[in-house]
Amino acid sequence: MIYTRFELMPDLLDRDTLAGLRVGGDERLARAELRRQIARLEHELSRLTVEAFPRLELDAGVSAGFREPRVAGLDELERVRDALADRVAESRQALRRQGELETRNRELLRRMLAAPAEYKWVQISRDDIGEVGCGHWHSRPRLGPLGMLMGWWRVKVSSGCPLSVRLAAVERQEPTETAG
């Protein structure tokens, strides 16, 4: 019997599918579902890492457990999924703790602004309340030691980040010319 080129094509296509790997349909579906779960957990972990940046550094790496490229088995995919799920849970908990700490610090700042004398020498930075940038609030006596004795306390707000360039008052050293 003579086959045409088009009649042999389905046999060639079937040979190159996953069926040729002798993987059952249930295992293929399970592997696809595990890959979907891993992708969802990786997406969630990256979202949490971005949400935490720059206030909190989260470890987003998970070791796959194998070094050479190959098709991972179900047990390996399950281990990766479980490790990612643990990492996501740890990241959520760390982010929640950081949020609670920042909320307590904002409340402390509110009370400190209302009554500076009750919070002598307390200093709260912008990082402490979850804001980016430089600066802090510091409860200090007005007029130095005299204000401290008289009970004149205030909250001083810093002016922000230090200058990143040299001050104009600093003289530049000019190269000297030598007469030859």
Summed up:
By secondary structure, the protein is mainly alpha-helical.
Describe the structure.
- Helix content is 48%, strand content 8%.
- The protein has 180 residues and is mainly α.
- The protein folds into 2 domains: 103 residues, no CATH class; 48 residues, no CATH class.
- It has a 3-stranded antiparallel beta sheet with strand order 1-2-3.
- It is elongated and about 85 Å long.
Question: How many domains comprise the coordinates?
Answer: 2
H/E topology pattern: HHHEEHE
Q: How can the largest sheet be summarized?
A: 3 strands, antiparallel
Strand order of the largest sheet: 1-2-3
Class per helix and strand makeup = mainly alpha
In the predicted model, the low-confidence regions spanning at least 5 consecutive residues are: 3-21
Features:
180 residues, mainly alpha, 2 domains
Map the helices and strands.
Blueprint: H1 5-15, H2 25-52, H3 74-114, E1 123-125, E2 136-141, H4 144-150, E3 153-157
Antiparallel strand pairs: 1-2, 2-3
Helix pairs in contact: 2-3
